[in-house]
Amino acid sequence: MKTIARLMIVGALVFGFGQFGYAQMSPPAAPAAPAPKAPAMPAAPAMPKVKKAPMSAEAKECSAKADAQGLHGKARKEFREKCKKG
Fold it and tell me: Which residues contact 80 (CB under 8 A, 6 or more apart)?
């Protein structure tokens, strides 16, 4: 019971002093002159785009078969892998 009473007293003091600090604050000062800008960094060189290898005729045929069956996602991927292997 003593612990609860002590916590309540400490909480009230902290809250009271916290509110007191806000009441005594002065309004913020006017903003100072803007700081000088840092020199611009040179732009990073652009990364070359990686070109995809064109699909082989076999891969295109397997994709067409998967489309005809209406396969999507994991089932499509597995079907195409089996189809390409033969």
Answer: 59, 62, 63, 66
